[in-house]
Specification:
The protein is an alpha/beta fold. Helices cover about 25% and strands about 25% of the residues. The chain binds NADP nicotinamide-adenine-dinucleotide phosphate and zinc ion (2 copies).
Amino acid sequence: MLTTPAYAAPSARAPLAPFTIERREPGPHDVLIDILYCGVCHSDIHQARDEWGGSIFPMVPGHEIVGTVVKAGAHVKKWQIGDTVGVGCFVDSCRECEACQEGEEQFCEDGTATYNSLERDGTTPTYGGYSTRITVNEDFVLRIPKGMPLERVAPLLCAGITTYSPLRQFNVKAGDQVAILGLGGLGHMGVKIAKAMGAIVTVLSHSAGKKEAACALGADHFIDTSQPDAFKVNAKKFDFILDTVSAQHDYNAYLGLLKRDRNMVLVGIPDPIPLSAAPLVMQRRHLSGSLIGGIRETQEMLDFCAEHGVLSDVEVISIDQVNEAYERVIKSDVRYRFVIDLASLK
Ligand code: NAP
Ligand code: ZN
Ligand code: ZN
């Protein structure tokens, strides 16, 4: 076993603290990755605080991982020592269910999440990227295109694919009026990716102070949703709304901003919110959800971002700043992703 320093949440109510984990020696189809950077996703906070229920403690969060291959098993074909690679939200899957066969491993009936989950043996907990190294099956590793600044790539492994996938799956095209709801880690990637796809992008935000920054990120318009007339003035304006908000908010009000027959897609996962039929029924609108993306689509997203110069805007932190970073994320005070430099843990 490979004794590895990490940071863990000991329980739902305790701050993260130094912790030691064991990584497995790479098997024939595994690679060992030295972790350089790991993004801080709001899902890390939801899970470390057991907001979705069923969390496994102690928990080492982190699923926006970028690093270097330092060891490869005897049968590994895809990777060589020295390759720069990424790992996202899952590290294995059953490979047999319908979702796996269709390359949508994120929906696997028995998948293995990067942390807060169990290895294929069904007993060993998985630990995420708030650590210095990780052993991963070669099929669940992504290639990072050359020349990209790695701290700005890490958030693509979750925030990037989570916004890219619905924009693609729901056929957003050049000239569409797209609204990105919530300008945090996911939201700012949504703005950049939708712009790169040629959409006309509006940010819907409850933080009036983000207006200038939204435009600097490439947004064409900004709507302050705390203004009382915002929903009336902008009714039936959008072809597509991507909802990235992490806290409870009124879905019904936002549905009113869609044109007839159009889609609002939820990627944010707050506590349950009441939904009324009227805004859907009256204009034949659709409300959908989306979960990260499969390995194939994640690679496609990385290549798309390299081609279009799309990168995350990040604040690099050391591992001992992670608890403070969580508090700032909750206050919507991050521009726009915290990324941990794992050199601070070595
Ligand atoms: P984040 O950086 O905290 O961004 C969330 C944004 O939501 C904030 O920046 C803020 O934007 C808005 N917001 C926060 N509290 C609000 C409130 N009370 N009312 C209205 N708006 C509020 O979080 P993230 O990392 O982007 O993650 C967002 C959500 O997506 C989380 O729930 C996370 O678990 C989920 N997620 C889902 C997937 C998936 O596959 N579906 C993947 C990753 C994450 P403004 O300040 O602009 O209003
Ligand atoms: Zn995430
Ligand atoms: Zn499966």
